[in-house]
Amino acid sequence: MPNIQHSYYPQSGRVVILGGGESGVGAAILASDKGFDVFLSDMGALAEAYKETLQQEQIPFEEGQHTEELILNADLVIKSPGIPEKAPLIQQLRKTNIPMISEIEFAAQYTDATLVCITGSNGKSTTTMLTYDIFRHAGTNVGVAGNIGQSFALQVAREKHDIYVLELSSFMLDDMHHFRANIAILLNITPDHLDRYNYDMNLYVDSKFRIIQNQQAEDYFIYCADDEEIVKGLERHQTAAMALPFTQEDTTAIAQGAYIDEQKKLIINIPKRETFTMNIEELSLQGKHNVYNNSAAGLAAKAQQLRNSAMKESMQSYVNIAHRLEHVACIGGVTYINDSKATNVNSVWYALESFSPDIVLIMGGVDKGNDYDMLRDLVKSKVKAIICIGKNNGRIHEAFESDTEVIVNSASMGDAVEIASHIAKKGDTVLLSPACASFDWFKNYEDRGDQFKDAVMAL
């Protein structure tokens, strides 16, 4: 299934990269390798490792500012997904005829690899890494990139894989126009990042469905048939690709896709492929949400005709990624779980659904317009205390003050863990699952999770 990405953008001239993180530096290296005149600009400070790389590659850059005369003369702009559309420089660029795209779209022009692309509000990283693990276990020449790992552009420049598994956020998809996913996976759509979409859920749904734009008849679209927003979105978003739904609600055989039968077996059925069957109790990742993740990853593997034995071995042995329901320690009979990657309410719902009472929940941070109502029943039935982190947690107090006996604020992650350790009893779970962005107290969700793990190990 070749993925020839037609070139809709300049193939020479001046390329300006906005943002000097993993994505931006990778794009700069690929552009330089392809003979462009490259300049990288970042409004913030660049990490030392990235500065050293740019210097070694002899790529000019600036940090701490955007010099307009060095940017507005570009033939092509590659924008970091983290830069919001309302940023003044982006607004200024939109008034010009300079094309502005993502690193993913830029890199896709220079590879004919098969692209397995995964998006959704929750479970993207787990499904991406599980899919990558299955493909790697099956012996394929596969890379993993996008919102995870080493940048796609850098791998296209220096590694050359036959298959790439790409985790794509809505922000990335917003700057992708002619990109084509050979296998597109849409896991779920729940309210998230609505501040970037004018608090309009339809705009966010439309962003997620961009993953199927430009698909052709020989491609595959894998999606959750149980997700209300996806089902509604399908009414206004069509694709020529073969549709492969996955479900847990319809226990009868479906013509093609994945479902759970009455014997609790995962059935994956694609025309002209050997049917895959596996007892869900054998999956290494347990919980309803992980059955969905395995269904999606399994469909992608089966679409590529990977062996059932390789799929099953990987699904039985896969270990979850850091910061996503990551077991940290069991101290005094109390289990500590790091779910720092849970930056929205739906992710916290999945986390709470995965554990038995009693849970001491550490949550809070930069609220993105969260609606906490969906958590209320689980908090009532499973959570014995909530410990808030972050600068302003008034909305968490308002949401749950009548649903749990204890809600307290903390002064630091160390303080939060210390409080949790005094509240939790043998058999309880202390769960860091914030539902919020991290950048008030922490560099990013990884830093938040690492501080949690350090604090637990210091008990």
UniProtKB/TrEMBL annotation:
Belongs to the MurCDEF family. Residues 118-300 form the Mur ligase central domain. Cell wall formation. Catalyzes the addition of glutamate to the nucleotide precursor UDP-N-acetylmuramoyl-L-alanine (UMA). The keyword Cell cycle applies. Pathway: Cell wall biogenesis; peptidoglycan biosynthesis. Keywords: ATP-binding, Cell cycle, Cell division, Cell shape, Cell wall biogenesis/degradation, Cytoplasm, Ligase, Nucleotide-binding, Peptidoglycan synthesis. It is found in: Cytoplasm. SUPFAM superfamilies: MurCD N-terminal domain (SSF51984), MurD-like peptide ligases, catalytic domain (SSF53623), MurD-like peptide ligases, peptide-binding domain (SSF53244). Its main location: cytoplasm. The lineage of its organism: Bacteria, Pseudomonadati, Bacteroidota, Sphingobacteriia, Sphingobacteriales. HAMAP family: MurD (MF_00639). It comes from Sphingobacterium corticis. This is UDP-N-acetylmuramoylalanine--D-glutamate ligase. PANTHER family: UDP-N-ACETYLMURAMOYLALANINE--D-GLUTAMATE LIGASE. The gene is murD. InterPro entries: Mur-like_cat_sf (IPR036565), Mur_ligase_C (IPR004101), Mur_ligase_C_dom_sf (IPR036615), Mur_ligase_cen (IPR013221), MurD (IPR005762). GO terms for molecular function: UDP-N-acetylmuramoylalanine-D-glutamate ligase activity. Pfam families: Mur_ligase_C (PF02875), Mur_ligase_M (PF08245), MurD_N (PF21377). ATP binds at G120, S121, N122, G123, K124, S125, T126. Its EC number is 6.3.2.9. Residues 323-436 form the Mur ligase C-terminal domain. It comes from the Bacteria. Transmembrane segments: none annotated. It catalyses: UDP-N-acetyl-alpha-D-muramoyl-L-alanine + D-glutamate + ATP = UDP-N-acetyl-alpha-D-muramoyl-L-alanyl-D-glutamate + ADP + phosphate + H(+).
